[in-house]
Amino acid sequence: MNNSKNIKVVILCGGLGTRLAEETQVKPKPMVEIGGRPILWHIMKIYERYGHLDFLLALGYKGEVIKDYFLNYHAHQSDLSVRLKTGDVEYGAPTSEDWRVGLISTGAASMTGGRLLRLKPHLKNQGTFMLTYGDGVSNVDIKELLAFHRSHGKMATVTAVRPPARFGDLAIEGGKVMRFAEKPQAGEGWINGGFFVFEAGVFDYLESDATVLEREPLERLAADGQLMAYHHSGYWQSMDTLRDKQALEEQWASGAAPWKG
Q1: I need a labelling partner for 251 at 20 to 30 A (CA). Which of 41, 81, 132, 154 fits?
Q2: What predicted TM-score, i.e. pTM, was given to this entire model?
Q3: Domains (range + CATH), the chain
């Protein structure tokens, strides 16, 4: 397995975000802002706190907005001195984020598993890598999550959380995921909170752009005894609706956002 500092973090950034249509008509969901920063930035900061600085962003819907954001990131965060005649630019200060960001177009209509499959050339020789969604924040301990993954020796780890019951349901026995059912109509218990850790063997479970990671691949991994659950009882919140966004905004404005660390 690769050294912790060299582990790549995949963030799925290609969804339409239809339940946030007020915002996502002009930008992809990961670019919806909380406290003046895209939620994508907040997610990357979670990993940064644990020393993970190498990101692969799986782009789809309006991916050019995310590309433009990072291409101009340094300029937007710094004071500038521009010599108009030559076009030379001097930056007042370096950005504090020492991130390496891969911006990979993974298809306008690809599903979550399809987006990950398109990243195979960037990950197949990496061994362990992490993955999460571009719309959820948490105070999950990434160091402990990674240590748990390495301790059990299986192919995949999902972070299990306890939010509202409208999300995916996990049946867990002795730390092993026995059944994975995404988004049940009703029910309570541990659900899929993202913040995955995978080994490269996961690509054997992915077939095409139409593959939904949360369906057959995770179901098969669970059936094969290769999917383990890291239980996180702390804070977790996805940004699915305008109400969710407003709640996150209020938490950030309070100065005590739980995911801030």
Answers
A1: 132
A2: 0.86
A3: 4-251 (3.90.550.10)
